[in-house]
Structures are given as C-alpha cells and as structure tokens.
Amino acid sequence: MLPSLSELKIAVIGLGYVGLPLAVEFGKCRPVVGFDIASDRIAQLRAGKDFTREVSGEELAEARQLRFSARIEDLTDCDVFIVTVPTPIDEHRRPDLTPLLAASRTVGSAIRPGGIVIYESTVYPGCTEEECVPVIEHHSGLTFNQDFFVGYSPERINPGDKAHRLPSIRKVTAGSTPDVADLVDALYGEIIVAGTHKAASIKVAEAAKVIENTQRDINIALVNELAIIFNRMGIDTQAVLEAAGTKWNFQPFRPGLVGGHCIGVDPYYLTHKAQAIGYYPEIILAGRRLNDRMGAYVATQLVKAMIQHRILVDGARVLVLGMTFKENCPDLRNSRVIDVIQELRGFGCLPDVHDPWADPDETRHEYGIDLRAAPEAGAYDAIVLAVAHDNFRMLGGEAMRRFGKARHVLYDLKSVLPDGEADLRL
Fold first, then answer.
1. CB hemisphere CA count around 201 (13 angstroms)
2. What is the C-alpha separation between 22 and 206, in angstroms, rounded?
C-alpha cells in the first residue's frame, strides 16, 4: 500500500551536482536525509559548504528539514529513496553501472514495505526495471509492485548554470504503476515551479533523457565536421555560423570539445542497448567518433600554426587556459581538454595548465596534472584558450598574449575573443 503524499520522508542517495540541489529543495518543505558514502562530503555539507558551487551556504541553511548522513541506519525510516549517483562509462566506452547497483543495494537494505525508489541517473531504456529492481528485491526480500514500487525522473541539471536551476526546469516523471506515477508526479510538483510532464512509462522517461544529450552530441558533431571542412577551405567557421544564424530556424550549435558527464557519455548508454537488441546505430556512433577526435585535431592545428610561425615544437612550452569540462564550473568529469594536452605531449610540447575554477587536488587525482596557480609572463610558445571561464573572457586577448614569448601562437578554441585577437580559432 502506498503512503500518502503528506507523510513522505525522503532520502536522496548521492549528494553531487544532481542530488544536493534536489535534497535542498525538498528539505525546504519536508523531512529529507541527504545520504552520501563520502564522509568528508557529509562533513563539508554540515559545515555549510558545497565544493560544486551549485548550492550556496544560505540555501543550505534554508533547507531546515534536511540533515546529512553517511550511515545506512539513518535511511530506514524513509519512505522515498531518490537515487542520483553517476552513471559513467568504462575504458571501453561501455556503461558502468557500478555506482547505480551499489546505490540499489543500499536502498535494498533500508527500504520497508510500501517504499518507493525513484531513479534520476541517466540510463538506457529498461535499465531501471531490468537491472536495479532485481537488486532491490534481492537485498530487501520484498516483491516489486507489491511490497515496493519504482519511479523514474531524469535529472536535467546544467552545472554552473545560474539561470536554469532545478525549480525552473520542467521535470519528466514516471512510475511503475499508474498510482505510483501520480504520486511521483505530485511529489516533484511540490518543488518544480516550471511544472512536470508525466511520461507513459519508466522506459519512455529513460529514453527521453538519453536522447536529449544524444541529439546535442550529433548536432555538435555536425558543426565540428563543418569546422574541419571550412578550415581546409580557408573559411572562418564562426563567420559562417553567424551568417547562417540570421535565419529564424537555424540551430546555434558551436564547434568544440565535447566532454562532461552528459553529452560525451549518455549516447554510449543508448548505443549499448541498441547493439544488445541487434541494431548497429551508425549515426550516433559516427557523431561520437568525430567528437572524440576533436582533441587531436585541435592539437594538430596548433602545432601546424607553430611551425608556420617558425616555432620549434619539440620542447615548446604551451599554456592551456582551462581544465574543467565547461565554463564557470568546477566540474572536471570527462573533460576532453586532457585530449589536447596528451596530444601536445605526443608532439614533444610541455603543457602548463591554469584554471581558477578547478580543484588542484582533484585535477591531480583525475588527470595527473599539477595546475599552475599563475602563468609566467613571456614564457610560452603557444597559448590555448580551452575553456571560456568569465575570468579568461575578462582578461582578453591582449592580456593573454603577455604570457607568450615575442613569437607565439594564440589559439581561441572557444571563439570568445573579438575578431583578430587570436591567431587561430576553431
């Protein structure tokens, strides 16, 4: 039997970029346990600090019914478990469900009869019911859709975006039975100002999420390919896009590195499932291959420009401005800036990386790179503006060139500098 909406106590499993904003919003109106296995993360949040910079100390204080815990015992009196753990890919670009299944085991050990488990993690269609539900059944001893129920509401968080935040982004919801679907939809309706969309089934909601970023990935791949073609023709890609953008229905995608926790990962979840059912997804994988090669392309273009400027490539010092996967955000997950760095090293260059948004310890742990706190003036043979942080935008091309030697190359990978301020742009 389902609990009533007014009585629900929520547990949010995983307090990263997705889980913490969700826990905070629900914590403003009902009891919430914010759970994470990282005890240092719990200590940080209890101190009113969030390293992701998604939630301020003031917002944490406003969530008066939210408490944080790393103890499974603190989950046992909860009615709803919202799972917001990462769903990465492995080194072979296959879905890695390890965090998702571990969270399902945790829920299975704490859930009581009548409990509801809502997944927000991005997965392939069918994953929730085919992979997660059996784990909960095994560890709880309960029967699906009899003793416990499941919902799905895909996250749509855009890290670093202060304009589009959780309450202002419309939420897709779904449930394992019609009554559960209604309850899940009503629950999210309490905090989502933009409204909700109740999908026909959990599989529909899963599919809707995974194609959002797959569509963007393919569109960016198209623009990246156009940039490569126009570069060979000596045509300024940005000028072409600006001209084409004067038509009302032209989509304003821009070329660049495609990383992060969504666009560079989610398509592989869909292609994995497609291949499992006997279909080879040609367009999706072609787009992925092209986008994955952009780091090598960028490095090659820079090296060619250095040679044209008669700069010795072997041993050249290159300053890379930006390491996070996107601007104005400390998120380093799946940053493809590393591809550029590794390719430059392959050419014999010596890259230095400066990023005021990235955490030095996390950068060292994830990529083996020691960030430079402050670049040296007049020290570099080449400068790459890799991430369009506001810090770098405000710095401007003239100030960036002061880091360069008398003869150097400035590559504006993000095309944020005015025309003529950089030697190269994608």
1. 8
2. 19
Helix (H) or strand (E) holding 57: helix 57-62
Contact of 21 with 166, CB cutoff 8 Å: yes
Element (H, E) at 232: helix 202-233
Output the pLDDT for position 163. 83
Q: Which residues contact 85 (CB under 8 A, 6 or more apart)?
A: 13, 14, 16, 19, 99, 100, 102, 103, 121
**Residue 190, strand partner residues:** none
In 3D space, the residue among 83, 87, 109, 106 whose CA is nearest the CA of residue 97 turns out to be 87
Yes or no: say if 134 and 104 are a contact pair by the CB < 8 Å rule.
no
Residue 162's CB: how many other CB atoms inside 10 A?
9
Q: CA-to-CA distance for 187 and 297, rounded, in angstroms?
A: 47
DSSP secondary structure, 144-158, as one string: BTTTBEEEE------
Please, what is the end-to-end C-alpha distance for the chain in angstroms? 58
Q: Helix and strand tally (H, E) in the chain? A: 15, 13
What is the rounded average pLDDT for all residues in the chain? 95
Q: What is the pLDDT of residue 160?
A: 82
The pLDDT tens digits of the residues spanning 171-220 come to 999 999 999 999 999 999 999 999 999 999 999 999 999 999 999 999 99
3-state secondary structure of 183: helix
Q: Is 262 among the catalytic positions?
A: yes
Q: Give 258-279 pLDDT, tens digit per residue.
A: 988 888 899 999 999 999 999 9
Which residues on neighbouring strands pair with residue 10, listed in sequence order?
32, 80
- 24 by DSSP, 3-state: which? helix
Q: How far is 386 from 412, CA to CA, in rounded Å?
A: 7
pTM: 0.93
* Residue range 49-68, pLDDT digits in tens: 999 899 999 999 999 999 99
The span from the CA of 159 to the CA of 56, in Å, is 14
Strand-strand pairing, 171-175 and 80-83: unpaired
CB 352 within 8 A of CB 318: yes
Specify the amino acid at residue 126: G
**Stretch 322-350: mean pLDDT, rounded?**
96
Q: Which residues contact 338 (CB under 8 A, 6 or more apart)?
A: 295, 323, 367, 369
Q: Could you tell me the sign of the dihedral formed by the alpha carbons of 376, 378, 384, 387, in that order?
A: positive
Burial class (CB in 10 A: 0-12, 13-18, 19+), 340: buried
Which residue out of 78, 127, 132, 262 is catalytically annotated? 262
